[in-house]
C-alpha cells in the first residue's frame, strides 16, 4: 500500500491526474459519458476506502484505477443487460395472461404476411433492399445511402416507388 493514498490532499491530486484516463476506460465499455464518470468515481471511491488494494510494486496507479473503472463499467453494463432481459421476460409472462388473440385475426395476419413477402419478391432488387434496410433494418435514409453507396435522392426514390407498389396490392390495403 502507498501510505500517501491516505492523505486527502495527495489523493485529490492523484484523482485529478488520473480521472480522465479512468473515465475513458469506462466509456469504451459503456459508450456514455455520464455512466462512465460514475464508474470512474466508483473506482476512486474503492481506492479511497481500501488503499491497500493498490500495490505500487505491481504497476502504475493510473493503470490500476483504469482497470478498476473498466471492471465497474463492465459490471454496470451486465446489470443493465440483465435488467433488460428481465423486463422482456416479465412482458412475455404478463402477455401470456392476456386474452388470447382471435384465431381469425391470426389467420388474417399470417395471410397478410404471406402476401407481403410475395409482393416484396416482385419488387426490383434496389427497391426491396431499400425497404428492408429502412423497415426491418431500422436505418434512416441517409444511413441507407451510406450503406449502399448511392445518393440520398436515389434512396428516397427507391423507397417511395417500393411503397407505392406495395400500397397497390389490394390485400395489403
Briefly, what is this?
The chain has 173 residues and is mainly α. Helices cover 76% and strands 0% of the residues. The protein contains seven helices and no strands.
Number of domains: 2
Q: Strand-and-helix sequence, N→C?
A: HHHHHHH
Mean pLDDT metric: 85
C-alpha Rg, in Å? 27 Å
- The CATH superfamily label of the largest domain reads RNA polymerase sigma factor, region 2, helix turn helix motif
Roughly what fraction of the amino acids lie in strands? under 5%
**How would you characterize the largest beta sheet?**
none
Query: Do you know the CATH topology of the largest domain?
Result: Rna Polymerase Sigma Factor, Chain: A
Task: Label the overall shape.
Answer: elongated
Number of strands: 0
**Separation, N- and C-terminal Cα atoms:** 73 Å
CATH architecture of the largest domain: Orthogonal Bundle
Number of helices: 7
Considering DSSP H and I runs of 4 or more, what fraction of the residues is helical? over 70%
The helix/strand class is mainly alpha
CATH class of the largest domain: Mainly Alpha
- Low confidence ranges: none
Summarize the topology.
Blueprint: H1 8-30, H2 33-49, H3 61-96, H4 103-122, H5 125-136, H6 141-148, H7 152-167
Fill in the keyword field for this structure.
173 residues; mainly alpha; Rna Polymerase Sigma Factor, Chain: A; Arc Repressor Mutant, subunit A
Explain what you see:
The chain is an all-alpha fold and 173 residues long. It folds into 2 domains: 3-94, Rna Polymerase Sigma Factor, Chain: A (Orthogonal Bundle); 103-172, Winged helix-like DNA-binding domain superfamily/Winged helix DNA-binding domain (Arc Repressor Mutant, subunit A), CATH 1.10.10. Helix content is 76%, strand content 0%. It has 7 helices and no strands. The chain has helices at residues 8-30, 33-49, 61-96, 103-122, 125-136, 141-148, 152-167. The radius of gyration is 27 Å and the shape is elongated. The chain starts with 7 loop residues before the first helix and ends in a 6-residue tail after the last helix.
Amino acid at each position: 500500500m502507498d501510505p500517501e493514498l491516505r492523505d486527502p490532499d495527495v489523493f485529490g491530486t492523484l484523482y485529478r491526474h488520473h480521472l480522465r484516463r479512468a473515465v475513458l476506460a469506462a466509456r469504451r465499455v459503456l459508450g456514455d459519458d455520464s455512466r462512465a464518470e460514475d464508474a470512474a468515481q466508483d473506482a476512486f471511491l474503492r481506492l479511497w476506502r481500501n488503499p491497500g488494494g493498490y500495490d505500487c510494486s505491481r504497476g502504475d496507479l493510473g493503470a490500476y484505477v483504469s482497470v478498476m473503472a473498466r471492471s465497474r463499467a463492465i459490471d454496470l453494463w451486465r446489470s443493465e443487460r440483465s435488467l433488460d432481459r428481465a423486463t422482456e421476460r416479465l412482458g412475455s409472462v404478463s402477455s401470456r395472461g392476456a386474452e388470447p388473440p382471435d384465431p381469425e385475426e391470426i389467420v388474417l395476419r399470417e395471410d397478410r404476411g404471406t402476401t407481403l413477402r410475395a409482393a416484396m419478391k416482385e419488387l426490383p432488387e434496389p427497391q426491396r433492399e431499400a425497404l428492408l434496410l429502412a423497415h426491418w433494418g431500422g436505418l434512416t435514409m441517409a444511413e441507407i445511402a451510406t450503406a449502399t453507396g448511392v445518393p440520398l435522392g436515389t434512396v428516397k426514390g427507391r423507397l417511395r416507388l417500393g411503397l407505392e407498389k406495395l400500397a397497390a396490392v389490394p390485400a395489403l390495403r
